[in-house]
Amino acid sequence: MADPIFPPMLRSHQRDFVQGFLAADAPRHQLLLAPLGAGKTTAAMAIMAAVLQITPARVLIVTRSSLVGEQFAQTRPPQSVMVQITKAWLRERTTESAGTPDGWPASMVGVVSPDTLADRWVTKELLTSQWDLVVVDDADTLSPRAERTLQRLVGEGAARRLLALGLGGQPADERPLGSLHELHATNWRLPFLDNPSTITFTLRFHPVFFERSEEERRLLHQVRRLLDRLGPTARQWELDDLEEAASSSPYALQASALRAIERLRPRRNALTHGSTGEDATPRPSRAHELRELSLTLQELQALADAVDQLSADARYTAFIDLVGTASPRFSQASTVVFCAQPSTADYLADCLVQLERPTTKVRAQRPALADLRSAVRTPTAVIIVEDEAVIGLDLQGVGQAINYDLVPDVERMRARWSRLGWTDPHRRPPDIWTMIDAAAATEEGPESRALALMPFLAGAKH
Fold first, then answer.
1. Cα–Cα distance for residue pair 253/244, rounded to 1 Å
2. What is the mean pLDDT of the chain?
3. Angle, to 10 degrees, between the axis of helix 342-354 and the axis of helix 250-273?
4. Are 30 and 183 in contact (CB under 8 A)?
5. Which of 19, 52, 56, 193 is closest to 135 using CA atoms?
6. The pLDDT of residue 8
7. Which of 38, 253, 278, 389 measures 20 to 30 Å from 192, CA to CA?
């Protein structure tokens, strides 16, 4: 049957899956595997909307992303209640307030995180309800305990239907939820996703080169010297994101350095006073760690202070020139800007607001979908999206996109572009502009590694 709620959103492969899942003789428990951007979330939303048309109905969504949870909840009918299922909510619910014998709202969309799902007491509570549909987002990342909860919901009849979403790519015996018997798997193999050249052909990528000042470049060199000196210890002390932050923006570097200082200072103080829980007798290893920590804290503080002394931010200046004056297209249709670091997204949003440019910032933990939908339709609006908030967004209505920064991770970059509709072979997606340090080709760093993996971002033709 044709889906009555999302007809313009569903493409042929999505529509076929939705129809198959809702068929009377379809397997009750299914696993949908597909790469990022293939449209798994949209198909699942269409299925959930169809299930919720049967009143009363209860749907349970398992997801770590509050954005994905809110998007799913948008499909619920007015009489259905939206509930964020936590231990606190479960303790407070009563049969009297719910108006049902089991204490659950008669028609509801419940959103639960995998960590909460893994709790044994929560599992017992969830088993007291009948769920017409359970949707599991990012099934590849479930812990064994959360997977056991789902196994109980299915095995004990609490979940009438189950739809799990995963990336796929693993052998059949290593697929998500492999412990569930009679789990029917569908693997979307789409030519326009499997052929990387399609991306470079379909999308028009435009490099925007800028030149960092000498003081900016010295700051990057300071970061590299610090990480080179520490070696493997940098990962142990959770400093391995410092280089990505420095590449993204000076403000992301400063925020990352200050967070590191907050983490490492108590450890340095504990070593100084011999209160780490270890033998208080001085040892060469303890003395060495204390020296390393003290030196590292000094260098991190120097980095944070150096940011305050910067006279310019070349990437930001080039960005403002692009969206402000370089092309009339940036005032004729909405623009989405992708950022690797939340601190960079915060900085851009604040600056654009001061420039009186309509701006919407999409946060991973505090999505505002109504604001986002309005911004997509506003010609001069700029939508700032941090990488952690990308999954599940629908940005197909924007006029153009900007990679404010680069990360040497093809899947992470593809996750950005997949929101723009490039997985639809019948639609021409918007142009993508990429801010690139002109020296990236000759200097080691995240940007140079990203360009080695994705040379088309700098204008290279295949």
1. 8
2. 84
3. 130
4. yes
5. 52
6. 47
7. 389
d(CA 137, CA 293): 40
Element spanning 433, H or E: strand 431-437
Query: What confidence score (pLDDT) does residue 366 get?
Result: 58
What residues have CB less than 8 Å from 377, skipping those under 6 apart? Answer: 334, 397
Mean pLDDT of 112-141: 92
Distance CA 71, CA 69 (A): 5
Q: Which residues, at least 6 apart from 130, have a Cβ–Cβ distance to it below 8 Å?
A: 58, 158, 160
* pLDDT value at residue 196: 47
Domains of the chain: 12-189 (3.40.50.10810), 196-213+313-458 (3.40.50.300), 214-309 (1.20.120)
The type of residue at 102 is D
Residue 200's pLDDT band (boundaries 50, 70, 90)?
Answer: very low
In this prediction, residues 80-88 reach a mean pLDDT of 89
Token duo for residue 90 = 């479960």
Contact 102, 128 (CB under 8 A): yes
In one-letter notation, the amino acid at residue 157 is: G
Q: List phi, psi (to 5°) of 303.
A: -65, -45
Whole-prediction pTM value?
0.73
Alpha carbon distance 394, 374 (integer Å):
12
Query: Which pLDDT score is estimated for 414?
Result: 83
Q: Which of 195, 114, 216 lies closest to 437, judged by CA?
A: 216
DSSP 157-209: TSBS-EEEEE---S-GGGSTTTTSTT-EEEE---HHHH-HHHHHHHS-EEEEE
- Predicted local distance difference test score (pLDDT) of residue 427: 63
Point out which residues pair with 335 in neighbouring strands: 382, 400
Find the mean pLDDT for residues 436-457: 89
**Is the separation of the CB atoms in 90 and 83 below 8 Å?**
no
C-alpha span between 41 and 68 (Å, rounded): 8
pLDDT recorded at residue 298? 96
CA distances from 354 to 347, 348, 350, 351, 359 (A): 11, 10, 6, 5, 10
Tell me the C-alpha distance between 62 and 135, whole Å.
Answer: 6
Among 277, 298, 278, 293, CA closest to 233? 293
**Contact criterion met (CB below 8 Å) for 328 and 351:** no
- Which residue, 76, 199, 67, 90, is CA-closest to 138? 67
